[in-house]
Amino acid sequence: MSHTETEIASQPDCWRRAIELARDPDGPVREALPRPGERVAVVGCGTSWFIAQAYAALREAGGQGETDAFPASEMPTGRAYDRVLALSRSGTTTEVLELLGRIRGGARTTVITAVPGSPVTGLADEAVVLDFADERSVVQTRWATSELALLRAHLGHELEGLIEDGAAALAAPLPDGLAEAGQFTFLGRGWTYGVAQEAALKMREAAGAWTEAYPVMEYRHGPISVTGPRSVVWWLGEGPSGLAEKEVTGPGGRLVGYGRDPLAELVLVQRLAVAIAAARGLDPDRPRNLTRSVILG
Questions:
Q1: Burial (CB count within 10 angstroms: exposed 0-12, middle 13-18, buried 19+), residue 179
Q2: Which CATH architecture has domain 3-154?
Q3: At how many degrees (to 10) do helices 142-154 and 47-61 cross?
Q4: Burial 196-216, CB ≥16 within 10 A → b, else e
Q5: What are the distances in angstroms from CA 5 to CA 56, 90, 139, 199, 278?
Q6: 3-154 and 160-279 share one CATH topology?
Q7: Crossing angle, helix 47-61 and helix 192-207, to 10 degrees?
Q8: Is residue 294 pLDDT above 50, yes or no?
């Protein structure tokens, strides 16, 4: 079993620990993370940027305050924020370190990382360390979902169903025919658009698959043109998508979505990415041209 497969299977246990950490009234997390009413920028790179998008949408929709998400390299430093929340698994990503150094002494900064004592913790005012969710694989799976579980719990979401859905997504057989698909379009709405972006990234990184991601209502505005035989259109949202099945099946595609919590649905995507990688003779632990952390010279 690859490191990626082991880490995918460990997710419900990691989520439980992250949720407990977020809900501990005496723990460090409650004070370190954004407080209601703060104007917040959330930054990250790659997977962390997509998790930032999901959290920003959740926080603002929940009435907690204005929340923007940026790639760390693209945050407009002229805007006024009460807090900048940086997400970095390794704590060594160059763009995150440069941003935190540039804004030091301004907005309050918090970092969520998997590595205690990593360089990013020395540049932030406060750090939340999820070392139990760190990974050996280059491809991020449990780290991404665990930090989003932590952030959702901090916002007050009830997540008991997430643990059950995650266990079900691990136990379920992969649906017939998905591994043979040639093209995937992942769709979300609101916070789940960030999850859809992460799903597409996992398929690209681990399996080298042709994948795209869009807000669900954007599907008709161009993305429908790539749907055809051997295409899968995957709804990663909560409730009905609003998309007519004939808009997918008419061009020859297949519409899927299994009604689980979107993070648990992402587990199924991760498993599928590993299966496709194996079928193509690829190593999901060491995807082509990628490293665990991007450190620029």
A1: middle
A2: 3-Layer(aba) Sandwich (3.40)
A3: 20
A4: bbbbbbbbbbbbebebbbbbb
A5: 29, 20, 11, 16, 11
A6: yes
A7: 170
A8: no
* pLDDT at residue 296 in the model: 43
**pTM of this prediction?**
0.94
pLDDT for the residue numbered 288: 61
Q: 272-294: string of b/e by CB count within 10 Å (b at 16+)?
A: bbbbbbbeeebebbebeeeebbe
For residue 61, count other CB atoms closer than 10 A to its CB.
12
Question: Domain coordinates of the chain in residue numbers?
Answer: 3-154, 160-279
pLDDT in tens, 231-262: 999 999 888 888 888 999 999 999 999 999 99
Token couple for 47: 């997977």
At residue 263, what is the residue type? Answer: L
Which token pair is 92?
A: 């060594």
Is a pLDDT exceeding 80 seen at residue 295?
no
- Determine contact, residues 87/293, Cβ cutoff 8 Å: no
Overall average pLDDT of the 136-145 stretch: 91
Residue 73: partners with Cβ closer than 8 Å, 6 or more residues away:
45, 95, 99
pLDDT tens-digit map of 60-76: 999 999 999 999 999 99
Q: Report the candidate in 120, 124, 129, 89 with the shortest Cα–Cα distance to residue 107.
A: 124
- The side-by-side arrangement of strands in the sheet containing 183-188 is 210-215, 183-188, 231-235, 254-256
What is the SS3 assignment for 161?
Answer: helix
Superfamily in which the 160-279 domain is placed by CATH? Glucose-6-phosphate isomerase like protein; domain 1 (3.40.50.10490)
Q: Please say if the pLDDT value at position 43 is more than 80.
A: yes
